[in-house]
Write a structure and sequence with these properties.
Blueprint lengths: L9 E2 L4 H13 L3 H17 L21 E4 H15 L5 H11 L2 E3 L20 E4 L1 H21 L4 H16 L8 E6 L5 E5 L4 E8 L2 E2 L8 E2 L6 E2 L24 E6 L1
Parallel strand pairs: 1-2, 2-3, 4-5
Antiparallel strand pairs: 5-6, 6-7, 7-11, 8-9, 9-10
Helix pairs in contact: 1-2, 1-3, 2-3, 2-4, 3-4, 5-6
């Protein structure tokens, strides 16, 4: 959250002592929930102190703490979240931590006078990533690479059909090797050109191929035809093709253009 108003209960930089305390608490955390708790307890303990308050003054039975009524410099905000995410890498919880931090961190504001150490947080990922790929999934990976090659041969290596496919395939297949969801990953088949990916942390997602429908390119015609070329079909209410001579957006014997996407 970025500062857009000055109506904060507390709006100030953290002291060096406070930032060291927050860093120490994050480093000592032994799980993703502990990372969030350690960062927030130490951070809001510091921000509440000038008000003569503590976290003990808040709770479901009393009143809730609104993090948006506090603000720290953007540089410090980024440093704290960066340390949380780096620590979460040790447990495969980067994505989960990032989503939860958005809702619980204080606001931020620009203050060029406040700087933090340029050193990057230590790499806390496990040393190895164990990737298990079923034999059916290896066939899908080979088929996807082959399909991209066929699109290049048919439409040209500078064509949108080929570039959309190869860029999306390379981007999404590389995500399987990320440790954002843990250091153990299993990949299985989820269709002729699609994969299902499961992590040890319980997060499951798909790399799904979305083919482009073959449509008639005549003005005003919305008819589509499948690969078998047996019949053009209309949706209810669509007008009949004016010329009566459907022109497909790509040949019936061509590989189907499309792209891959990440779906959780």
């Amino acid at each position: 959250m970025t500062d857009t108003t000055d109506t904060y209960r507390v709006r100030r930089p953290l002291t060096d002592t406070e930032t060291r305390s927050i860093s120490t608490a994050i480093d000592a955390a032994g799980s993703v929930p502990e990372i969030l708790a350690a960062a927030l307890i130490s951070l809001f303990t510091a921000l509440l102190a000038p008000l003569g308050e503590s976290l003990n003054d808040y709770g479901p039975a009393t009143r809730l703490l609104d993090p948006g009524t506090f603000a720290i410099p953007q540089t410090q905000w980024a440093a704290i979240t960066g340390e949380c995410l780096a620590r979460a890498d040790a447990f495969g919880g980067r994505a989960q931590t990032a989503m939860e931090l958005i809702n619980v961190m204080p606001a931020s504001y620009d203050d060029p006078s406040v700087t933090v150490s340029a050193a990057q947080p230590a790499d806390q990922r496990p040393y190895e990533h164990v990737l298990t790929v079923s034999r059916e999934a290896t066939d899908v990976i080979a088929a996807a690479s082959r399909h991209c090659g066929e699109l290049s041969a048919c439409f040209g290596e500078d064509s949108r059909e080929y570039l959309d496919a190869i860029r999306s395939w390379q981007h999404n297949i590389s995500r399987i090797f990320s440790m954002a969801f843990g250091s153990q990953t299993r990949v299985s088949r989820d269709g002729d050109l699609s994969l299902l990916v499961s992590s040890a942390t319980g997060f499951t997602y798909g790399l799904i191929f979305h083919p482009v429908r073959r449509r008639c390119t005549d003005d005003g015609c919305r008819a589509v035809i499948n690969d078998d070329g047996t019949a053009w079909t209309y949706s209810p209410g669509d007008p009949v093709c004016a010329s009566g001579q459907h022109v497909p957006s790509y040949p019936l014997d061509a590989p189907r253009p499309g792209s891959w996407s990440f779906h959780s």
